[in-house]
Amino acid sequence: MTPTNKTKAFEEIARMFAISNESAKYFLNHVQKSFKVERPPHKLILEFVQGHNYESKPTPYEVASAMKESGVWNYDLGSPPPAVEDEEDIYR
After folding, report:
1. CA 56 from centre of chain
2. Got the DSSP string for 32-47?
3. Distance from CA of residue 71 to its chain's centroid?
4. DSSP string, 8-62
5. How do residues 5-27 score in pLDDT, each as one tens digit?
6. What's this model's pTM, rounded to 2 decimal places?
């Protein structure tokens, strides 16, 4: 579904992934921040995500990486975010 002029990209992302508008804004901004200098517009990110049938919400870096690999936004990526690791349970 293509957004109308009145629908914002973050509203479509929120609907697609069943997340809040605030989470959708965070997601779009972090896709942009995954690139070093040139950042893609929210509308382009939305169109890219709509074109890929993600079964679950991808990470912002996964979307940015896929955009670069496919040539949709061929600019340098920053470093991937550190992997989140569970802390060791010291209270066993």
Report:
1. 12
2. HHTBSS----HHHHHH
3. 16
4. -HHHHHHHHHT--HHHHHHHHHHHHHTBSS----HHHHHHHHHHS--SSPPPHHH
5. 688 999 999 999 999 999 999 99
6. 0.82
